[in-house]
Structure formats: structure tokens, C-alpha cells
Amino acid sequence: MMAVVALGWLVVAAPAAAQQPGVHYLHQGVMPPGAIGGRQLLRGGPLPGYFQPVEIKAPQGALVSLAVAGDFDRPKAAPRRAGFLIGQVYRMRVTNIHLHPGMEVFPTIEVIDRLYPPRGQETRFAIPVELTQEDLELALQGKFVTRVIYLEDPRRALPVAEDPQQQEWFEIGPGGDPLAAADALGRPVAILRMGARLPDAEGPDAQFLFGCPRFVQYPPRRVPPAAATPAEAAPAEAPPAAPPAAPGPGPGGAAPVAPEAGQP
After folding, report:
1. Closest by CA position to 109, among listed 81, 143, 73
2. What are the residue boundaries of the structural domains of the chain, listed by start?
3. What region does 88 belong to: left with phi over 0, alpha with psi -120 to 50, or beta?
4. Would you call 48 helix, strand, or coil by DSSP?
């Protein structure tokens, strides 16, 4: 399965192979992990040595581990935020997958370009990489999934409503190149790949982990508390005080009557 993901969370239609521009692309989506990012570094500029923030999302309950020093670090609940070097390939381990206890998936993320946020606000603008339940199940079934995340070209954006809680995507038809489709719609920045490949029984080796490239660990993004509605923000008014109870009956069984205004 090959899909293209909009960084701006926008739903877009899948172009057919015949609709793609008749040009020759230097990079293709079927190239091995690391090949595209490595060629990007040859351009120079502000790419080499830059740690691009990435936010890895997964279904509720799933745990994500990153490769560190020849093994995987302690599993942590998604989303996980980290800074990845451009041109490197980062192997992950996803466990505790819903409806698949004991099963594991080992996706890779290759950052092939960077974002250019305001200085000092780099971590606010992380590339979102979402591991959906459907993609994880396809990988467990032995299928290979490729997703290309791109920065959307505002001139080609569709005027549709966005759901900030969901990363929209569309599938490329048979024979299509997801990287070429993403390039036609914007600027590709990352590639997510996942399949059924597993590490050796003795443990993951350096080739499987792509050498465990360095990364910068960031704390989870703080989600601001939801604003209180007027009914929640304002305290409820106190109910009106109940009138004082009438005194009991006086001598002879008749209840005393309060004097009217003007009476002594």
C-alpha cells in the first residue's frame, strides 16, 4: 500500500498515473531507505546536522520505542517527539497494538527535508507521522506500507474543512509513485515505511537499526486544557433563602399573626 499524507491535515484526491506530469524524477518512492535523504544532503545548505522535530502518533494504548545504542529504548506511550537528522533512517518498535497482543511492528522514518519555523520555535512545528491502526494491521499481515508526508502548497490546497485530530491521507493507485504525487502537491519532508520485517532472534543488528543514528529527545507536547464554558466558568448562583419557619401555635391552639404595617 502506498499513500501520501498532507502535513497540513488536508484531504486530497489521488491523481492517476496518467495525470502525473510527464517529467523524469531523480528520486522515486521505491528507492531503498536512506537513498533519497542522502541525495538531499548533497544540496548543502541548512540541511546537514539539523535535527528536524518529528511527532510520532499511534493508536491509543500503543507503545513506541526508538533505536538507541544497538537496541530499543524503554517503550513509551504515543505521541513521541524527537529531533531526527535529515538523511538518516530511524527504526522504531511498536508494541501493545490493539487487538494484537504480543505482536510487534518495526517501521522506519526517513526525514528528507526540513521545515523553516521562526527562530526559537522549532519544536512547535514538528512533522506529524501517524501510525494508524489500519497500517499496523496491514504490516502484521505481511504487506508493505509507504507513506510520504509533504508540506502542502497553499496554491493547490482544496477548500475543505480540516480535522486537527486526524491526519488525512489518500492512496496512490497501482503503478503510481507516492513521492512524485507528493512532489506535485507540495514539498515532501518525510517517508514512513513499515512491513513484516523482524529482527533476528538474537536481537537487532546494526544493519536492521540503520546504525542507530543520533536523535534529540523532546518532552511530549503539552495540550492546553479545554476552555471552560460560561456555565462552567461562572459559579452557580446560590438558591434564594427559604423564608423563616412560622412559630408554633400559641396558647389556646391559635397561631399568632404578624402585625400588618402601621400597626403597633
Report:
1. 81
2. 2-218
3. beta
4. coil
Q: What share of the chain is helix, strand, coil (3-state, %, to 5)?
A: 15, 25, 60
pTM for the model stands at 0.72
pLDDT tens-digit profile of 36-62? 888 888 888 889 999 999 999 999 999
Question: What is the distance between the terminal CA atoms of the chain, rounded to a whole angstrom?
Answer: 96
Q: In angstroms, what CA-CA distances link 256 with 30, 209, 249, 261, 264?
A: 98, 94, 7, 16, 15
- Say which residue the cell 498532507 belongs to: 6
Query: Cell 533519497 identifies what position?
Result: 36
Residue 133: CB atoms within 10 Å: 15
The pLDDT tens digits for 109-152 are 999 999 999 999 999 999 999 999 999 999 999 999 999 999 88
